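Thread: quick sanity check before group meeting

JM: Hey all, I'm pulling together slides for Thursday and realized we never actually wrote out the predicted structure for the chain we discussed last week. Dropping the sequence here so it's in one place. If anyone has concerns about the input, flag it before I start.
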Amino acid sequence: MMDPIIKDQTKVIFGPCRLSYTHLFEKYTPEGGGDGKYMTNVLIPKKEKKTIKALEDAIEAAKKAGIVSKWSGKEPKKLDLPLRDGDEKDDDVYADHLFVNAKCNTKPGVVDKNKQAITDEEEVYSGMWAYVSVTFYAYDVNGNKGIACGLNNIMKFKDDERLGGRVSAESDFDGVGGDDDEEFE
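JM (edit): ok, ran it. Output follows.
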């Protein structure tokens, strides 16, 4: 893993990390409705202490800014924080990881290792590994207060097994067909 890069106290570039619930080409709208967003969960292995420290520091900086800009000079008693423990989810993929749910309203930049834009949606999926750029910021919406994780950009690092149970067509049909001379009965 690379050492995380912190910019402007609340922006962190880190990775490679595994992505889950990935919606980077079209906005995801929750079942209950609401505004759609581009999003992905970013899984950070718990052993990546430097990355976790950088994320915690950026969250703390966003909290300090929020005290001034959003919360009338004091930290709220109940504050939603974006860095979560994957061991608390009922999902083996998240075990031994922390994660953030990174979201944005505008389409994030998605590039390959050569920093060339990826336009083929099949190349970007839940399960792949990527470097991620996020910015933490304070919010106060309808009485809910917290720190959110804004998604900036993604750089694909490598492929891995797809998450969510979907497999490729090649994998499904491996060993099927191929003999054009068979007759149908």
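AS: nice. Strands lie at 5-7, 11-28, 37-45, 84-85, 97-104, 109-111, 129-141, 144-158. The longest strand covers residues 11-28.
JM: adding both to the slides.
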